Amino acid sequence: MPTPITPSAAATPSAATTHQVRIERYADQGRCVAHIDGRVVFVRFALPGELVTIALDEPHDRDDRFWTGEVTEVIEPSEDRVEPAWPLAGPLAFGGGVGGADLIHVSVPGQRAWKSATVSEQMKRLGHVDVEVPVIGVPGDDERHGLGWRTRIEMIVDEKGRPSMRRRGTHVRVPIDAMPLATDALNAVAEHEHVWDGGFEAGAQIRVAVPEPRGGLTGEPGGNASPDDRNYAVLVDGELRAGTQALTERVTVNDANGDPHEFTYTVDAGGFWQMHREAPNVLANTVLDLVRESLGRVIRRNGRDIVLWDLYSGSGLFTLPLASLAAERTRVLSIEGAKTAVHNAHRNLGRAGLGNVDARTGDVSRTLRVVPKHFSRPDVVVLDPPRAGARKQVCRQIAEAGAPAVVYVACDPASLARDTATLVGLGYSIRHIEAHDIYPDTHHVETVALFTR
Known about the structure:
Blueprint: E1 18-22, E2 25-26, E3 31-36, E4 39-44, E5 51-56, E6 66-76, H1 108-125, E7 135-136, E8 152-157, E9 163-166, E10 173-175, H2 184-192, E11 205-209, E12 233-236, E13 239-243, E14 246-254, E15 260-268, H3 279-299, E16 306-311, H4 319-323, E17 330-336, H5 339-352, E18 357-361, H6 364-367, E19 380-383, H7 391-400, E20 405-410, H8 413-425, E21 429-436, E22 446-452
Parallel strand pairs: 4-6, 7-21, 16-17, 16-19, 17-18, 19-20
Antiparallel strand pairs: 1-5, 2-3, 3-4, 5-6, 8-9, 8-11, 9-10, 11-12, 12-13, 14-15, 20-22, 21-22
Helix pairs in contact: 1-8, 7-8
Domain TRAM: 12-73
Binding site for S-adenosyl-L-methionine: 274, 312, 336, 384
InterPro entries: MeTrfase_TrmA_AS, NA-bd_OB-fold, SAM-dependent_MTases_sf, TRAM_dom, U5_MeTrfase_fam
Protein backbone atom coordinates (compact mmCIF):
# COMPACT_ATOMS: atom_id res chain seq x y z
CA MET A 1 0.00 0.00 0.00
CA PRO A 2 1.41 3.45 -0.92
CA THR A 3 2.37 5.74 1.94
CA PRO A 4 -0.40 8.07 3.19
CA ILE A 5 0.07 11.68 2.13
CA THR A 6 -0.54 14.55 4.54
CA PRO A 7 -0.39 18.31 4.03
CA SER A 8 1.62 20.79 6.01
CA ALA A 9 -0.05 21.98 9.20
CA ALA A 10 -0.18 25.55 7.94
CA ALA A 11 -2.12 24.50 4.86
CA THR A 12 -4.63 22.27 6.62
CA PRO A 13 -8.24 23.60 6.76
CA SER A 14 -10.09 23.51 10.05
CA ALA A 15 -11.77 20.24 11.02
CA ALA A 16 -15.17 21.90 10.81
CA THR A 17 -14.87 22.25 7.03
CA THR A 18 -13.36 18.83 6.28
CA HIS A 19 -14.84 15.38 5.73
CA GLN A 20 -13.33 11.93 5.35
CA VAL A 21 -14.73 10.18 2.27
CA ARG A 22 -14.14 7.14 0.10
CA ILE A 23 -13.68 8.11 -3.56
CA GLU A 24 -15.99 6.09 -5.82
CA ARG A 25 -15.35 6.75 -9.50
CA TYR A 26 -14.09 9.13 -12.15
CA ALA A 27 -16.19 12.15 -13.07
CA ASP A 28 -15.62 14.95 -15.61
CA GLN A 29 -13.33 17.98 -15.49
CA GLY A 30 -10.57 16.05 -13.74
CA ARG A 31 -12.70 15.31 -10.68
CA CYS A 32 -13.93 12.19 -8.93
CA VAL A 33 -17.20 11.34 -7.17
CA ALA A 34 -17.75 10.84 -3.44
CA HIS A 35 -20.83 11.18 -1.22
CA ILE A 36 -21.47 13.02 2.03
CA ASP A 37 -24.79 12.12 3.72
CA GLY A 38 -26.19 11.04 0.36
CA ARG A 39 -25.14 14.20 -1.47
CA VAL A 40 -22.82 13.95 -4.50
CA VAL A 41 -19.47 15.67 -4.07
CA PHE A 42 -17.08 16.26 -6.99
CA VAL A 43 -13.56 16.07 -5.62
CA ARG A 44 -10.39 17.50 -7.17
CA PHE A 45 -7.03 15.69 -6.92
CA ALA A 46 -8.59 12.37 -5.97
CA LEU A 47 -8.54 8.86 -7.47
CA PRO A 48 -11.13 6.07 -7.34
CA GLY A 49 -10.81 3.78 -4.33
CA GLU A 50 -8.90 6.24 -2.18
CA LEU A 51 -9.78 7.15 1.39
CA VAL A 52 -9.14 10.88 1.69
CA THR A 53 -9.97 13.94 3.72
CA ILE A 54 -11.49 16.74 1.67
CA ALA A 55 -12.33 20.39 2.22
CA LEU A 56 -15.58 21.58 0.69
CA ASP A 57 -15.52 24.71 -1.42
CA GLU A 58 -17.13 27.75 0.18
CA PRO A 59 -19.94 28.21 0.85
CA HIS A 60 -19.97 24.60 2.06
CA ASP A 61 -23.43 24.69 3.64
CA ARG A 62 -25.33 25.54 0.45
CA ASP A 63 -28.35 23.49 -0.57
CA ASP A 64 -27.26 22.61 -4.11
CA ARG A 65 -27.73 19.29 -5.90
CA PHE A 66 -24.04 18.63 -5.50
CA TRP A 67 -21.02 20.05 -3.73
CA THR A 68 -17.41 20.43 -4.83
CA GLY A 69 -14.25 20.02 -2.82
CA GLU A 70 -10.56 19.22 -2.83
CA VAL A 71 -8.28 16.66 -1.22
CA THR A 72 -6.42 17.86 1.87
CA GLU A 73 -5.07 14.50 3.07
CA VAL A 74 -4.62 11.11 1.41
CA ILE A 75 -5.09 8.29 3.92
CA GLU A 76 -5.25 5.31 1.57
CA PRO A 77 -3.65 6.25 -1.79
CA SER A 78 -4.37 4.66 -5.14
CA GLU A 79 -1.59 2.79 -6.92
CA ASP A 80 -1.97 5.39 -9.68
CA ARG A 81 -1.12 8.30 -7.36
CA VAL A 82 2.29 9.94 -7.75
CA GLU A 83 4.06 12.87 -6.16
CA PRO A 84 3.21 15.90 -8.36
CA ALA A 85 6.07 16.63 -10.75
CA TRP A 86 4.93 20.28 -10.64
CA PRO A 87 3.85 20.88 -7.01
CA LEU A 88 2.55 24.39 -7.69
CA ALA A 89 -0.25 22.87 -9.79
CA GLY A 90 -1.22 20.37 -7.08
CA PRO A 91 -3.78 20.75 -4.26
CA LEU A 92 -4.06 23.97 -2.28
CA ALA A 93 -3.39 22.09 0.96
CA PHE A 94 0.01 21.03 -0.37
CA GLY A 95 1.06 24.53 -1.51
CA GLY A 96 -0.40 24.32 -5.02
CA GLY A 97 -3.61 25.63 -6.50
CA VAL A 98 -2.51 27.51 -9.63
CA GLY A 99 -4.29 25.12 -12.01
CA GLY A 100 -3.23 24.11 -15.48
CA ALA A 101 -2.48 20.49 -14.58
CA ASP A 102 -5.43 18.94 -12.76
CA LEU A 103 -4.12 15.37 -13.19
CA ILE A 104 -0.60 16.16 -11.98
CA HIS A 105 -1.17 13.73 -9.07
CA VAL A 106 -1.79 10.76 -11.40
CA SER A 107 0.79 8.53 -13.12
CA VAL A 108 0.89 8.91 -16.91
CA PRO A 109 -0.61 5.39 -17.47
CA GLY A 110 -3.22 6.23 -14.84
CA GLN A 111 -4.11 9.44 -16.66
CA ARG A 112 -4.73 7.53 -19.88
CA ALA A 113 -6.91 4.97 -18.10
CA TRP A 114 -8.88 7.88 -16.57
CA LYS A 115 -9.34 9.56 -19.97
CA SER A 116 -10.35 6.31 -21.64
CA ALA A 117 -13.01 5.73 -18.99
CA THR A 118 -14.24 9.33 -19.25
CA VAL A 119 -14.57 9.39 -23.06
CA SER A 120 -16.23 5.95 -23.11
CA GLU A 121 -18.69 7.04 -20.41
CA GLN A 122 -19.59 10.27 -22.24
CA MET A 123 -20.13 8.36 -25.48
CA LYS A 124 -22.45 5.97 -23.69
CA ARG A 125 -24.35 8.55 -21.63
CA LEU A 126 -24.71 11.33 -24.21
CA GLY A 127 -23.97 9.58 -27.49
CA HIS A 128 -26.00 6.42 -26.72
CA VAL A 129 -23.27 4.22 -28.17
CA ASP A 130 -21.32 1.61 -26.23
CA VAL A 131 -17.66 1.84 -27.29
CA GLU A 132 -14.31 1.38 -25.60
CA VAL A 133 -12.05 4.28 -26.49
CA PRO A 134 -8.30 3.61 -26.29
CA VAL A 135 -6.07 6.55 -25.36
CA ILE A 136 -2.77 6.64 -27.22
CA GLY A 137 0.25 8.39 -25.74
CA VAL A 138 2.74 10.56 -27.58
CA PRO A 139 6.37 9.39 -27.75
CA GLY A 140 8.52 11.11 -25.12
CA ASP A 141 5.73 12.04 -22.72
CA ASP A 142 6.15 9.02 -20.44
CA GLU A 143 9.84 9.72 -19.96
CA ARG A 144 9.12 13.36 -19.03
CA HIS A 145 6.19 12.44 -16.74
CA GLY A 146 3.82 14.49 -18.88
CA LEU A 147 5.90 17.69 -18.74
CA GLY A 148 7.62 19.67 -21.50
CA TRP A 149 4.93 19.55 -24.21
CA ARG A 150 3.30 22.99 -24.55
CA THR A 151 4.41 25.22 -27.43
CA ARG A 152 2.08 28.01 -26.28
CA ILE A 153 1.56 29.38 -22.76
CA GLU A 154 -0.39 32.28 -21.30
CA MET A 155 0.13 34.09 -18.00
CA ILE A 156 -1.14 37.15 -16.17
CA VAL A 157 1.08 39.86 -14.69
CA ASP A 158 0.95 40.31 -10.91
CA GLU A 159 0.98 43.61 -9.00
CA LYS A 160 4.80 43.65 -9.05
CA GLY A 161 4.99 43.26 -12.83
CA ARG A 162 5.95 39.55 -12.81
CA PRO A 163 4.39 36.75 -14.89
CA SER A 164 2.11 34.77 -12.62
CA MET A 165 -0.79 32.37 -12.31
CA ARG A 166 -3.81 32.94 -10.09
CA ARG A 167 -4.25 30.62 -7.12
CA ARG A 168 -7.70 29.04 -7.28
CA GLY A 169 -10.34 30.44 -4.97
CA THR A 170 -8.30 33.58 -4.21
CA HIS A 171 -7.13 36.81 -5.78
CA VAL A 172 -3.54 35.82 -5.10
CA ARG A 173 -1.25 35.79 -8.11
CA VAL A 174 1.67 33.41 -7.73
CA PRO A 175 4.82 34.55 -9.60
CA ILE A 176 6.52 31.91 -11.74
CA ASP A 177 10.01 31.77 -13.23
CA ALA A 178 9.52 28.76 -15.53
CA MET A 179 6.70 26.71 -17.01
CA PRO A 180 7.19 22.95 -16.47
CA LEU A 181 4.46 22.06 -18.99
CA ALA A 182 6.24 24.05 -21.72
CA THR A 183 8.90 22.74 -24.08
CA ASP A 184 12.58 23.36 -23.43
CA ALA A 185 12.60 25.68 -26.45
CA LEU A 186 9.77 27.79 -25.06
CA ASN A 187 11.39 28.11 -21.65
CA ALA A 188 14.66 29.05 -23.41
CA VAL A 189 12.87 31.78 -25.38
CA ALA A 190 11.22 33.12 -22.21
CA GLU A 191 14.62 33.22 -20.53
CA HIS A 192 16.30 34.86 -23.53
CA GLU A 193 13.59 37.53 -23.80
CA HIS A 194 13.67 38.18 -20.03
CA VAL A 195 10.00 37.25 -19.62
CA TRP A 196 10.67 35.83 -16.15
CA ASP A 197 12.42 39.06 -15.09
CA GLY A 198 9.10 40.92 -15.04
CA GLY A 199 8.73 44.62 -15.63
CA PHE A 200 5.28 44.32 -17.22
CA GLU A 201 2.15 46.33 -16.44
CA ALA A 202 0.04 44.74 -13.70
CA GLY A 203 -2.89 42.77 -15.08
CA ALA A 204 -1.43 42.40 -18.57
CA GLN A 205 -1.78 39.09 -20.42
CA ILE A 206 1.44 37.45 -21.64
CA ARG A 207 1.49 34.85 -24.39
CA VAL A 208 4.62 33.01 -25.51
CA ALA A 209 4.49 30.85 -28.65
CA VAL A 210 7.44 28.79 -29.86
CA PRO A 211 6.91 26.33 -32.75
CA GLU A 212 8.33 22.82 -32.67
CA PRO A 213 10.36 21.24 -34.11
CA ARG A 214 13.00 23.97 -34.20
CA GLY A 215 14.50 23.09 -37.58
CA GLY A 216 17.55 21.43 -36.10
CA LEU A 217 18.10 23.93 -33.29
CA THR A 218 18.56 22.72 -29.73
CA GLY A 219 16.03 25.12 -28.29
CA GLU A 220 18.38 28.09 -28.00
CA PRO A 221 16.80 31.21 -29.55
CA GLY A 222 18.47 34.32 -30.90
CA GLY A 223 21.58 34.68 -33.02
CA ASN A 224 21.96 34.01 -36.73
CA ALA A 225 22.68 30.29 -36.89
CA SER A 226 19.41 29.48 -38.63
CA PRO A 227 16.39 31.24 -40.15
CA ASP A 228 14.34 29.55 -37.39
CA ASP A 229 16.18 31.44 -34.65
CA ARG A 230 13.53 34.19 -34.59
CA ASN A 231 10.63 31.81 -35.12
CA TYR A 232 8.85 32.61 -31.87
CA ALA A 233 6.63 35.30 -30.39
CA VAL A 234 6.16 37.07 -27.08
CA LEU A 235 2.85 38.91 -27.01
CA VAL A 236 1.66 41.29 -24.27
CA ASP A 237 -2.04 42.10 -24.39
CA GLY A 238 -2.00 40.88 -27.98
CA GLU A 239 0.86 43.18 -29.07
CA LEU A 240 4.10 41.67 -30.32
CA ARG A 241 7.02 42.38 -27.97
CA ALA A 242 9.62 39.99 -29.40
CA GLY A 243 10.01 37.54 -32.26
CA THR A 244 7.59 37.54 -35.17
CA GLN A 245 3.81 37.66 -35.56
CA ALA A 246 3.81 35.15 -38.41
CA LEU A 247 5.18 31.86 -37.09
CA THR A 248 6.35 28.92 -39.19
CA GLU A 249 5.17 25.42 -38.29
CA ARG A 250 6.28 22.20 -40.00
CA VAL A 251 4.27 18.99 -40.09
CA THR A 252 5.36 15.62 -41.45
CA VAL A 253 2.64 13.39 -42.91
CA ASN A 254 3.27 9.91 -44.26
CA ASP A 255 1.75 8.89 -47.58
CA ALA A 256 0.04 5.57 -48.28
CA ASN A 257 3.46 3.93 -48.73
CA GLY A 258 4.79 5.28 -45.44
CA ASP A 259 7.04 7.85 -47.09
CA PRO A 260 7.22 11.17 -45.18
CA HIS A 261 6.19 14.49 -46.71
CA GLU A 262 6.77 17.81 -44.94
CA PHE A 263 4.19 20.60 -45.08
CA THR A 264 5.03 24.16 -44.06
CA TYR A 265 2.48 26.49 -42.44
CA THR A 266 2.37 30.16 -41.57
CA VAL A 267 0.25 30.66 -38.46
CA ASP A 268 -0.59 33.74 -36.43
CA ALA A 269 1.23 34.00 -33.10
CA GLY A 270 -2.02 34.89 -31.35
CA GLY A 271 -4.18 32.38 -33.21
CA PHE A 272 -5.01 28.73 -32.74
CA TRP A 273 -2.55 25.94 -33.37
CA GLN A 274 -2.35 22.58 -31.62
CA MET A 275 -0.31 23.14 -28.44
CA HIS A 276 1.46 19.83 -27.95
CA ARG A 277 4.81 19.74 -29.71
CA GLU A 278 3.80 16.56 -31.60
CA ALA A 279 0.02 17.05 -31.87
CA PRO A 280 -0.02 18.40 -35.45
CA ASN A 281 1.97 15.38 -36.66
CA VAL A 282 -0.10 12.88 -34.66
CA LEU A 283 -3.49 14.27 -35.66
CA ALA A 284 -2.67 14.93 -39.32
CA ASN A 285 -1.41 11.38 -39.79
CA THR A 286 -4.39 9.89 -37.98
CA VAL A 287 -6.88 11.91 -40.03
CA LEU A 288 -5.16 11.17 -43.35
CA ASP A 289 -5.07 7.42 -42.59
CA LEU A 290 -8.84 7.44 -41.94
CA VAL A 291 -9.54 9.54 -45.04
CA ARG A 292 -7.49 7.18 -47.23
CA GLU A 293 -9.33 4.20 -45.77
CA SER A 294 -12.66 5.87 -46.55
CA LEU A 295 -11.63 6.92 -50.05
CA GLY A 296 -10.58 3.37 -50.82
CA ARG A 297 -14.24 2.43 -50.60
CA VAL A 298 -15.49 5.57 -52.37
CA ILE A 299 -13.13 5.34 -55.36
CA ARG A 300 -14.29 1.84 -56.08
CA ARG A 301 -17.85 3.11 -56.38
CA ASN A 302 -17.37 5.94 -58.87
CA GLY A 303 -14.90 7.32 -61.37
CA ARG A 304 -15.45 11.03 -60.79
CA ASP A 305 -13.16 13.47 -59.00
CA ILE A 306 -12.86 13.18 -55.25
CA VAL A 307 -14.58 15.92 -53.20
CA LEU A 308 -13.46 16.59 -49.63
CA TRP A 309 -14.78 19.04 -47.05
CA ASP A 310 -12.49 20.41 -44.33
CA LEU A 311 -14.67 22.22 -41.80
CA TYR A 312 -13.32 24.47 -39.02
CA SER A 313 -10.09 24.27 -41.00
CA GLY A 314 -7.96 26.87 -39.21
CA SER A 315 -4.71 27.65 -40.99
CA GLY A 316 -4.98 24.44 -43.01
CA LEU A 317 -3.40 21.76 -40.83
CA PHE A 318 -5.51 19.08 -42.54
CA THR A 319 -6.29 21.03 -45.72
CA LEU A 320 -2.79 20.81 -47.19
CA PRO A 321 -2.32 17.03 -46.87
CA LEU A 322 -5.94 16.46 -47.93
CA ALA A 323 -5.40 18.53 -51.07
CA SER A 324 -2.25 16.52 -51.79
CA LEU A 325 -4.18 13.24 -51.93
CA ALA A 326 -4.32 12.40 -55.65
CA ALA A 327 -4.15 16.16 -56.23
CA GLU A 328 -4.94 15.93 -59.94
CA ARG A 329 -8.37 14.51 -59.17
CA THR A 330 -9.15 15.90 -55.71
CA ARG A 331 -11.09 19.08 -54.86
CA VAL A 332 -11.26 20.43 -51.31
CA LEU A 333 -13.70 22.91 -49.79
CA SER A 334 -12.37 24.37 -46.53
CA ILE A 335 -14.34 26.63 -44.20
CA GLU A 336 -13.03 28.59 -41.22
CA GLY A 337 -14.45 31.52 -39.27
CA ALA A 338 -11.20 33.30 -38.36
CA LYS A 339 -10.15 35.66 -41.17
CA THR A 340 -6.46 35.67 -40.26
CA ALA A 341 -6.36 31.89 -40.23
CA VAL A 342 -7.96 31.71 -43.71
CA HIS A 343 -5.54 34.34 -44.99
CA ASN A 344 -2.68 32.17 -43.75
CA ALA A 345 -4.31 29.07 -45.25
CA HIS A 346 -4.25 30.76 -48.67
CA ARG A 347 -0.55 31.54 -48.18
CA ASN A 348 0.15 27.98 -47.10
CA LEU A 349 -1.68 26.50 -50.08
CA GLY A 350 0.08 28.85 -52.48
CA ARG A 351 3.48 27.98 -51.07
CA ALA A 352 2.68 24.28 -51.51
CA GLY A 353 1.50 24.83 -55.09
CA LEU A 354 -1.97 23.48 -54.33
CA GLY A 355 -4.63 25.14 -56.46
CA ASN A 356 -7.41 22.60 -55.89
CA VAL A 357 -8.79 24.16 -52.69
CA ASP A 358 -11.64 26.64 -52.28
CA ALA A 359 -10.76 28.15 -48.87
CA ARG A 360 -13.68 30.17 -47.53
CA THR A 361 -14.12 32.46 -44.53
CA GLY A 362 -17.32 32.35 -42.53
CA ASP A 363 -19.57 30.58 -40.09
CA VAL A 364 -19.59 26.91 -41.08
CA SER A 365 -23.35 26.39 -41.01
CA ARG A 366 -24.14 29.59 -42.92
CA THR A 367 -21.43 28.92 -45.51
CA LEU A 368 -22.73 25.39 -46.11
CA ARG A 369 -26.14 26.79 -47.09
CA VAL A 370 -24.70 27.93 -50.42
CA VAL A 371 -22.15 25.42 -51.72
CA PRO A 372 -21.08 25.39 -55.39
CA LYS A 373 -22.52 22.42 -57.22
CA HIS A 374 -19.13 20.84 -57.88
CA PHE A 375 -18.53 20.75 -54.09
CA SER A 376 -22.05 19.78 -53.05
CA ARG A 377 -21.54 16.00 -52.77
CA PRO A 378 -18.50 15.33 -50.54
CA ASP A 379 -16.95 11.88 -50.44
CA VAL A 380 -15.41 12.50 -47.02
CA VAL A 381 -15.98 15.30 -44.53
CA VAL A 382 -13.26 16.20 -42.03
CA LEU A 383 -14.25 18.48 -39.18
CA ASP A 384 -12.35 19.80 -36.17
CA PRO A 385 -14.87 22.04 -34.37
CA PRO A 386 -14.23 24.17 -31.29
CA ARG A 387 -15.01 22.90 -27.79
CA ALA A 388 -18.76 23.38 -28.22
CA GLY A 389 -18.81 20.87 -31.09
CA ALA A 390 -20.40 21.04 -34.54
CA ARG A 391 -23.96 20.90 -33.15
CA LYS A 392 -27.10 19.61 -34.79
CA GLN A 393 -27.41 21.98 -37.77
CA VAL A 394 -23.94 21.27 -39.15
CA CYS A 395 -24.41 17.53 -38.58
CA ARG A 396 -27.67 17.69 -40.53
CA GLN A 397 -26.02 19.62 -43.37
CA ILE A 398 -23.29 16.97 -43.62
CA ALA A 399 -25.92 14.22 -43.75
CA GLU A 400 -28.04 16.10 -46.30
CA ALA A 401 -24.97 16.42 -48.53
CA GLY A 402 -24.83 12.63 -48.58
CA ALA A 403 -21.28 12.28 -47.23
CA PRO A 404 -20.56 8.54 -46.93
CA ALA A 405 -17.75 9.11 -44.40
CA VAL A 406 -17.08 11.68 -41.67
CA VAL A 407 -13.79 12.08 -39.78
CA TYR A 408 -14.50 14.02 -36.59
CA VAL A 409 -11.68 15.49 -34.47
CA ALA A 410 -12.89 16.53 -31.02
CA CYS A 411 -11.25 18.32 -28.11
CA ASP A 412 -14.27 17.81 -25.84
CA PRO A 413 -15.72 14.31 -25.27
CA ALA A 414 -19.16 15.59 -24.25
CA SER A 415 -19.56 17.63 -27.44
CA LEU A 416 -18.40 14.68 -29.53
CA ALA A 417 -20.90 12.45 -27.76
CA ARG A 418 -23.80 14.83 -28.37
CA ASP A 419 -22.88 15.15 -32.04
CA THR A 420 -22.51 11.37 -32.22
CA ALA A 421 -26.13 11.00 -31.08
CA THR A 422 -27.17 13.39 -33.86
CA LEU A 423 -25.12 11.63 -36.54
CA VAL A 424 -26.34 8.18 -35.49
CA GLY A 425 -29.89 9.48 -35.69
CA LEU A 426 -29.11 10.61 -39.24
CA GLY A 427 -28.00 7.16 -40.33
CA TYR A 428 -24.29 7.06 -39.44
CA SER A 429 -22.45 4.59 -37.24
CA ILE A 430 -19.01 4.66 -35.64
CA ARG A 431 -16.52 2.65 -37.64
CA HIS A 432 -13.42 3.66 -35.64
CA ILE A 433 -12.65 5.76 -32.57
CA GLU A 434 -9.44 6.52 -30.68
CA ALA A 435 -8.17 9.26 -28.40
CA HIS A 436 -4.75 10.88 -28.22
CA ASP A 437 -3.16 12.09 -25.00
CA ILE A 438 -1.93 15.42 -26.33
CA TYR A 439 -2.73 17.26 -23.08
CA PRO A 440 -0.69 15.33 -20.47
CA ASP A 441 -1.24 16.11 -16.77
CA THR A 442 -4.66 17.61 -17.60
CA HIS A 443 -8.11 16.05 -17.99
CA HIS A 444 -8.27 17.17 -21.64
CA VAL A 445 -7.95 14.67 -24.48
CA GLU A 446 -8.31 14.74 -28.28
CA THR A 447 -10.59 12.12 -29.82
CA VAL A 448 -10.78 11.13 -33.48
CA ALA A 449 -13.79 9.20 -34.75
CA LEU A 450 -14.72 7.84 -38.18
CA PHE A 451 -18.44 7.71 -38.98
CA THR A 452 -19.75 5.87 -42.02
CA ARG A 453 -23.15 5.46 -43.60
